[in-house]
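Predict the holo structure. Ligand: nicotinamide-adenine-dinucleotide.
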Amino acid sequence: MLEIKHFINGQESDDQGRYQDVYNPATGQVIGKVALGSVDTVEQAIDCAKAAFPAWRATPPLKRAQVMFRFKQLLELHKHEICLLLTTEHGKVTDDALGELTRGIENVEYACGAPELLKGEHSRNIGPGIDSWSEFQPLGVVAGITPFNFPAMVPLWMYPMAIVCGNTFILKPSERNPSAPLFIGKLLKEAGLPDGVFNVVNGDKEAVDALLHSPDVEAISFVGSTPIAEYIYKTGSANGKRVQALGGAKNHAVVMPDADIDNAVNALMGAAYGSCGERCMAISVAVCVGNKVADEVVAKLSAKVKTLRIGSGLVEGQEMGPVITKEQLNRISGLVAQGVEEGATLVVDGRDIAVEGNELGFFLGGCLFDHVQGDMTIYQTEIFGPVLCVVRVDSVQQAMNMINDHEYGNGTCIFTRDGEVARYFSDHIQVGMVGINVPLPVPSAYHSFGGWKRSLFGDLSAYGPDAVRFYTRRKTITQRWPSSGVREGSQFAFPS
Ligand code: NAD
């Protein structure tokens, strides 16, 4: 049985308090227990991070970046072990786990550019003999709270940049799959990071609330569901912290009559059912423009959804693993039943599938709905499972109105061959990340990731250039060196 502890000041520790079971969702078995940090544990981590801050703040950015270079090498060296942990505790298939880790490593690579990113801005001679520059100073102790669906990548969106900017960090990963973030975090010590600069406190609401209420935590990055994101944003802001809180999503893909339908259907399959739909950028609504397109898309999707290869993510060739918990399995099945009750056409019903040899696993087959309407629960709710809703509309404008009216605005995409339509769509759609013939437009590490509307609370997005701003405080210095011996009078007019 695995025992997953905290990692504070370079040491694993456990406060012998509360624990939670950790499951392998493919077998349905408990494989370990994770310590749930108490307020005392969080305060201990904060004290260590606070103590480590002055020396780390004074460490040149080049030296901080060199730690990240070694960290990247260690991540690559251990990638198979990390992917095994990801698949075992999350359920995603191995090549999907590798994709997640690779995107996480790209954020470490970006952080290696710290000396360039932190150069600041300089203006010479803003007035006679006066120079001025802005520099980006670290905040102090910052915290990250992360969801279950990307246990490696989402923490890597946060702490590499926070750390190279000179902050010290406390990670509170999801309690559902804590092994990979802990394993990865410990590699930072091996990479040469001083103790206390990076800490992991496992836990639940108690640990999160302790971070939110501590006067010594300067900023919080959160990724998770919208109700919790809103709570984190409001509570953290009320306590004077800088907060970025990324929330849930309902991502629409518009299929235009001129699209290459076979390619669009293939893209929809991966985007809707990959990782069992447990991605904040998963496509969960296909908006077909015209009945002809809809009929063709539904017929082609339905054949593919019925033949999805579903099983343990560790078995080569699988396309979809289990969902994360039994509760989530029941919740998704309940939403599918509600969709039927509310009048949508269930074209493929993935409930009650059995995976031979893994009968107790949390498996659900792909589900496909047609004739979904805007007022249905399955349309309005983030299902976060392998359920794709097809909506039929008459025009691109009608499709865009639906997307713009939805409470979420994380990602979207359009399949078309018409550049004018694509440009109009990307110009006017009320969504933060837009794909044109790209179903999962997750920005690269050199851009920033963030939705609109109730998919992001706060002003700055995750990773990329926004992360430099989020994890630093700007200071602007204005300087002149008057000639010695020259007497200067007082000036009462505002300097101009
Ligand atoms: P969640 O909101 O349940 O949990 C996220 C984190 O918040 C976890 O660390 C958890 O321990 C903590 N938490 C849970 N309940 C809390 C409470 N009452 N008070 C304080 N902290 C609490 O989310 P999840 O189920 O782990 O992840 C799935 C959700 O995350 C989906 O809604 C998905 O869309 C979203 N997500 C969003 C993005 C994005 O970038 N926008 C990325 C990944 C996941």
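Residues 94 and 314 are 6 Å apart (CA to CA). The longest helix spans residues 39-58.
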